[in-house]
Amino acid sequence: MKKIIGILGGMGPAATADMFQKFIQLTPASCDQEHIPLLISSIPDIPDRSTALLKGGPSPLPAMQDYVNRLISAGAKCIVIACNTAHYWHKDLQASSSVPILSMIETTADAALQSGLKKIGILATNATLTTGLYKQEIEKRGLTYIEPSPEDQALVMESIYTLKAGNFDKAHEIMSKQKDNLFAQGAEAIILGCTEVPIILSKEATATPERYLDATLLLVKRAIHWYNEK
Amino acid sequence: MKKIIGILGGMGPAATADMFQKFIQLTPASCDQEHIPLLISSIPDIPDRSTALLKGGPSPLPAMQDYVNRLISAGAKCIVIACNTAHYWHKDLQASSSVPILSMIETTADAALQSGLKKIGILATNATLTTGLYKQEIEKRGLTYIEPSPEDQALVMESIYTLKAGNFDKAHEIMSKQKDNLFAQGAEAIILGCTEVPIILSKEATATPERYLDATLLLVKRAIHWYNEK
Q1: Residue range A30-41: mean pLDDT, rounded
Q2: Interface contact B74-A41, CB threshold 8 A
Q3: Does A23 sit within 8 Å of B21, measured CB to CB?
Q4: A42 contact residues in B (CB cutoff 8 A)
Q5: Beta partners for A146?
């Protein structure tokens, strides 16, 4: 069996490319053939996850199931989803998938617990916050969960959609203040809990990795571990 | 019909990620859903193309055919190959593919002709040079084709494999001298004719785009044109 990892991406494409780059960078390969085999779906017409959860827009689930099935039909033996908010449908996707779908949320919460830090901040979409995706997993592990204020959270969303529209510098300017505010609220580490956020704060996360839990990076490490298991 | 573009990649993964990024950057999208739908194979166990052509190593064709078929079975309606040297097998791949496979070599040679420049240098693998992949297409269009000297070409190869092994800075230091030598030989523009080379010389190609024919970028533009055709 060829252990191919399928990436359900397109939510958005830049976040998918970031995950792909992290697979490449985390693989100690001296030639092409030693890299991890990946199949990537970056078909971006999946209905907006936040709009579905907060404004009653069309569900992204059927399109996500379709693309997971395409990855499996092409040979993927394990799936990762390059979008935190989409994990709201993780159980539904797993139920209709013949291969395991590793959870970015549980993987990140496990890493928070293992870090030994107690107060965990979060930068994520409104939908990820409203549905309590991370809150439940963080508090279940006995840790304190710290969200931005409603005013700050509106700016987090503005930053994420500014990046999706291609303006990195403006997205960074807005997001940088929001992580400062979370640290000021007592956060000892911040979950970068939307796949756009590690791109926006990549300089900070590289400089002081102990202060950030990059959900994309942690899921990639988890997937490489799956790949290397006998 | 959903016009999904399939990328046959993994040769190597970094070059595939570069092509993916170029699709994202060249799409004027204001939200996820406006991006180009892509399916990407980055399964890197394809036998080395240069070793096959120059040292009688195993042919990469069966693996490439397998992965093209996986992309088609998952829904790709058009294929691009993220490797110049692999285009030696373009006709064989097209013969066994039910969808069009756009040629990076012909696309780049067309762009050289349209540039109005007459003397075209090349930075590519030994195998791409030995098989005359670009030479034939450039000279067929009435242009002059300029290769590195054998000593310089050995350094071009060293730079490419240094990048594949993850050392950008050393790869750049070596390659930078080779492009200077081609310009000194009279080249008016240089084809970046191995998918690793636009990564190595990305700063130069961005600063003076009129002096470089980035084969990856040109193929992405050609594919986006295919996508936008009625």
Answers
A1: 91
A2: yes
A3: no
A4: 20, 35, 37-40
A5: A121
Residue identified by tokens 């004027």 is B28
Residue B227, pLDDT > 80, answer yes
**Encoded tokens for A149:** 């204020």
Residue B230 confidence (pLDDT) above 80: no
What domains appear along chain B, each with residue ranges and CATH number?
5-103+218-228 (3.40.50.1860), 105-215 (3.40.50.1860)
What φ, ψ does residue A123 adopt, rounded to 5°?
-120, 110
Query: What ipTM describes this predicted complex?
Result: 0.93
Helix (H, G, I), strand (E, B) or coil at B18: helix
Is residue B31 among the annotated active site residues? no
Q: Rounded to the nearest 10 degrees, how much is the dihedral formed by the CA atoms of B118, B124, B125, B128?
A: -40
pTM, whole model, 2 decimals? 0.94
Segment (H or E) for A156: helix A150-164
CB contact under 8 A, A74 and B30: no
Q: Which tokens belong to B159? A: 């730079």
Residue A32 has its nearest CB partner, among B13, B32, B39, at: B13
Distances (CA, A) of B126 to A149, B123, B158, B163: 59, 9, 11, 16
A3 vs A99, B7, B10, CA distance in Å? Answer: 11, 20, 15
Tokens of A217: 């990076």
Active site residue B83: yes
Nearest CA distance, B228 vs chain A (angstrom): 16
d(CA B50, CA B40): 22
For residue B99, the 8-state DSSP code is S
Alpha-carbon distance B36 to B28, whole Å? Answer: 10
- The CA distance from B22 to B217, in Å, is 7
Q: From the CA of A7, how many Å to the nearest CA of chain B?
A: 10
Tokens of residue B168, six digits: 């950008």
